[in-house]
Amino acid sequence: MKHIDWLYQMFDIVVIGGGITGTSLSALLSKKLRVLLVEKNSYLGGRAATRTPKEWGWGDSTEYRVDYGHHMMAAGGFLEYTVHYTGADKYVNLVRVPIPYFYRMNKFYQAPVSLLQQIKAYDYMPLSGKLRLFRFLRFVKKTNVKEVIEKYAYTSLKDLFDEFNLRDYERELLLDGFAAGYQTVAEENKNSAADLILCLKLFFKGLKTHRTPLLYPYGGFSNLSKAFAKIVEENNGKVVLNTKVEKILVNSENRVTGVKLSSGEKMNVKRVVIAFPIYESLPLFDDETIEENNKFFNRVRESRKNASSLFLILMGAKTRLKGEILNTWIFVPRQEIDTHDTYMLISETGEKLGVAKGMKTVTSFAVLYEHGMNVKVLEEKIRRNVGKLFPSFNFEEVDWKASHIFPVVDGVARTIDWYHEKRFGPETPIKGLYVAGDSAYELSTGTDGCASSALLTKLTLKPVTSATSPLLASPKTAKAFKTLRLLPLPLNITSTPLTASL
Asked: Could you tell me whether strands 73-74 and 214-217 are parallel, antiparallel, or unpaired per DSSP bridges?
């Protein structure tokens, strides 16, 4: 039998999904538990997977390493912490990414680091606007995380901007510049103010510790998932590819009893983690389980409506955007887009990040996408505006080119209706079932948010002494996390009780 080598082994927990959430969580859990990580694809990484254009089906080239989306990781954040804590850093090299650019009025600006840079920054902005912005950023740096959550979790960005009297220039810099890199939904009336503040705090921590807010795993983002998977295997866990979970088995007491694979085999296990967007999990449960947990699953159905996406054009470009390869992002606010209805996020990476050689680059352009939009219109919009910003760039001089709609790693957008306690997990009404990832309770954004969710889920699970031990009640519940005791982690990791708990 194909799965005989692991199917009848005893595991403490099954993690479904081999993306950043699933692999980082499995590495964390494998220190104390025997973990089985199940991934339906033939590769790890999920929406942050890295493959050659030929492997993606985008051309014949094998000379590029291309992420499915356009990922970077927060310097000094949860994901970097998890890489070092689990020991995965011996298998992956994190390199510093140059500070991203913000394009405005025919100039490219980088976030100022020194005091002199702050004074000279954003010369299109009047001094009064700079002073308002600096006051707001001073507040961001000084306020503690508990206060941020208590006051701003369900406050919109508009109300936050109004409170600090921020005007148009300051708002666009924060919304279409900074926030565009951390949150796909960039609407003042929808975004959670706390989300922006916490991400800004991480941004400044990265500048302080690494002189940049961004890092990248050399050679492609899926190298992170591969590194975590090696840790799982080292700790006597198992990582299985090309295997799909068809059903999560739940008994009449509303408790997980195992999983059924698409091949028909069943495994007995008392704990299961959904480590992929929760709105995709409904087919894994039978009608009786859904009916018994009707309120929970109605919320799951509703969450799909709040998933967010981008339209991407990716290519192996032969021409440069600005001369030298940027190896970072450029944020273009909607005021610079001729239709004024979307920002544009541009990425150009090359040999420094290990994704191409010589002067070749992986270049991508992304704009907001909503269901039903005409992708041909979006592609023409990108071409038209890139031509205006970078006249020498040639869309036709490429080794390969592809476009697709990318379900971003903000599985459920962090709006005021889907933030903090309004998100899922780590625990669920079904005993032994946990939710982690970008649909779940998290303390950060994107792939860093996935890692924060993995850490919180790890803390929810109490280790058992063996795979045959009875399920023990968790001493730390999701409610306990929401007391904010653990929230300072990304800001001052060494002073929190998390290290001791892990």
From this structure: antiparallel
| 308 close to 410: Cβ distance less than 8 angstroms | yes
Count CB atoms within 10 A of the CB of residue 263: 12
Query: Edge to edge, what strands does the sheet with 344-349 contain?
Result: 107-110, 101-104, 328-332, 344-349, 361-369, 309-317, 398-407
Tell me which amino acid residue 345 is: L
Write down the pTM of the prediction: 0.89
Closest CA to 490 of 209, 223, 192, 218: 209
Decide if 44 contacts 18 (C-beta within 8 A). yes
Task: Decide: 40 and 19 in contact? Cβ < 8 Å.
Answer: no
Q: How far apart are CA 22 and CA 49, in angstroms?
A: 13
Name the token pair of 61.
């080239």
Mean pLDDT (10-residue bins), the chain, 502 residues: 61 96 97 95 95 95 92 91 96 95 88 67 87 92 89 94 94 76 70 89 88 94 98 96 96 96 91 94 96 95 85 94 92 91 93 94 93 94 95 94 81 82 90 92 86 92 44 33 39 32 28
Classify 372 in phi/psi space as left (phi over 0), alpha (psi -120 to 50) or beta: left
Six-digit token pair at 5? 């080598």
Kindly tell me the burial class for residue 29, based on how many C-beta atoms sit within 10 Å of its own C-beta (0-12, 13-18, 19 or more): buried
- My answer on whether omega of the bond before 426 falls inside 30° of 0, hence cis, is yes
3-state secondary structure of 15: strand
Integer angstrom CA distances of residue 325 from 111, 158, 361? 19, 36, 7
Cα(78)–Cα(25) distance, integer angstroms: 12
CA atoms in the 13 A half-sphere facing the CB of 455: 32
Q: Which domains does the chain have, with CATH numbers?
A: 4-48+221-305+413-501 (3.50.50.60), 101-210 (1.10.405), 309-407 (3.30.519.10)
For residues 304 and 301, give the distance between their C-alpha atoms in angstroms, rounded to a whole number.
Answer: 6
From CA 412, how far away is CA 418, in angstroms rounded? Answer: 7
Helix (H, G, I), strand (E, B) or coil at 131: helix
d(CA 330, CA 101): 5
**Cα 306 from chain centroid (whole Å):** 16
Alpha helices in 58-114 (DSSP H): 78-86
C-alpha angle 328-329-332 in degrees, rounded to nearest 5: 155
Q: Using an 8 Å Cβ cutoff, are 63 and 360 in contact?
A: yes
Please give the structure tokens belonging to residue 322: 């600005």
